[in-house]
């Protein structure tokens, strides 16, 4: 999951992660801000012992929240390796309408899972194999989606017709413009020279 840049939770499910997302999102923002301040020297205003306490506090927070710091929106789907152990995660996801992909062992209820994967949830090899497969599929799907989005943008840009404005006085349909041109040519056609009469005008 780290290699595929997928948000993850390892140690335990955070209660309210889905049902109380607003508070969880605020906590994530706070942790990200603390990390930025630590790197950018924002802690230099505090004494050394305070900086040490803040560093320890930040490390403790990262133990729980570190895998989901790249998450900015509520997830649309969750993958759970042990749906009995993480029953709270399953309940929250079902309540919030979040799709669940889960490894379903013989002692689990598959009706709670949207996309059940029959497998042994106690075998490390089984979990590793399934997780790697899903991570690869996620990465490939993300790349395909990115390329499709780029193609759609290019197609939308190329489909825009370049409208060429007609010369002044030639606004209208092709037939109207053609008729106007003919009329203009007739008007601008040079007339024959006529000689003026030498006879004076008699009043």
Termini distance?
Answer: 109 Å
Largest sheet, spatial ordering of strands: 1-2-3
Structural class: mainly alpha
Radius of gyration: 36 Å
Strand % is: 5-15%
Q: Which regions are unreliable across 5 or more consecutive residues at pLDDT < 50? A: 193-203
Give the number of DSSP strands.
3
Summary tags:
5 helices; 7% strand; flat; 49% helix; three-stranded parallel beta sheet; mainly alpha; 203 residues
Model description:
- This protein is mainly alpha-helical and 203 residues long.
- Helix content is 49%, strand content 7%.
- The chain contains five helices and three strands, in the order H-H-E-H-E-E-H-H.
- The protein has helices spanning 21-40, 48-65, 87-96, 124-159, 174-188; strands at 77-80, 99-104, 115-118.
- It has a three-stranded parallel sheet with strand order 1-2-3, with helices on one face.
- Helix 3 links the parallel strand 1 (77-80) and strand 2 (99-104).
- The longest helix has 36 residues, at 124-159.
- 7% of the residues are buried.
Topology:
Layout: H1 21-40, H2 48-65, E1 77-80, H3 87-96, E2 99-104, E3 115-118, H4 124-159, H5 174-188
Parallel strand pairs: 1-2, 2-3
Helix pairs in contact: 1-2
Give a brief outline of the structure:
By secondary structure, the chain is mainly α. The chain is built from 5 helices and 3 strands. α1 packs across α2.
